[in-house]
Amino acid sequence: MMKLVVLTRQFGMYTGATVSTIELLKRIKDKFARVVVVTMRTDGTQVAGVEFKMVAKSRDLKTTAQQLVAGDPEWVGYSDDHFGWMLADANVPYIHTYHGNWPDVKYQSGQMFLKSFFFIPMYKKTIRKAAVTVNVSHYMEKRFSGQYAQRSTVIYNGIKQAGDQAKQQPKHDRLMMVGNVDKRKYGYAVAVFKQVDPTRMPPVDIYGKIVDEKIATELRQYPFVHLQGQVDRIKFNQYTKFLCTSASENLPVSIVEALLQRVPVISFDVGGIKEVVTPTRGRVVARGDLTAFEQALFANDTYSFAGNDLADTFNWDNSARKYYELFKGLRR
Questions:
Q1: PANTHER family given for it (predicted)?
Q2: Which of 93, 109, 211, 284 could be stapled to 182 by a disulfide with Cβ–Cβ 3.0 to 4.6 Å?
Q3: In this structure, what is the dihedral angle of CA atoms 255, 261, 263, 268, given to the nearest 10 degrees?
């Protein structure tokens, strides 16, 4: 029976990537004789039946994995970050899921430009050495990871909130945004809010951890903006529109959650967003086109939400079954 080693820098409710790993393990752990997470950092999140091996430094991830597998051919691996290549060095065939925004994020700041010289080569190495690379959007498979992968496929992440809330049209317009508060996600929001007539703006609730206090301070200057912080559950059906002003994305599942509640999405054209935001579900405008975004924001469009079944496509149970089939293929 197969055994699974997960090698990751951090395990817990840190990012979309780490949360996705947790959701996947919950559904496939019982199919393995043993599941071990080798990591440098955890927030205390536990998955029943999953073991943990904590290490102090990144180089210890590889040595610990090597000691763990010790020539046992039943081990397969999983990677959700740029250290996945260490599994290959430990002679473990592995699946890597690419959740990242590289190379799109490279030119968004001087800091990200410098970081790109470390992260992009590391991700290329991880992708090249993976037996299978899973992408969470067709966009990023074509844009980056598919160029380097031995084998590449797309499996969408599941969602935390299905479309089970009764949709009732709110009495008044109220807008929402979701994502940690930083320049990448809200730099354009500040620019949009600066140019709109504040007397026309409905309330805008922003859900997410404050990462960049400077951006948060700029957002707070607008009386219609309300920073709600990070919450476990959002009542999407209280809102009339979902706004996405990100400068780069892969494919945020919060957008899918909004669409399943029949909340139309107004977004810049970044990442794989157009894979789900079709003309029947919202409006996508050119990245950085503030005037077009403002026009879409105030447009009185109606949307039928016709199209493919997002609830079935972005379903963790369905996605986990696809992953398990890939894991079985590693041992053939």
A1: GLYCOSYLTRANSFERASE
A2: 211
A3: 10
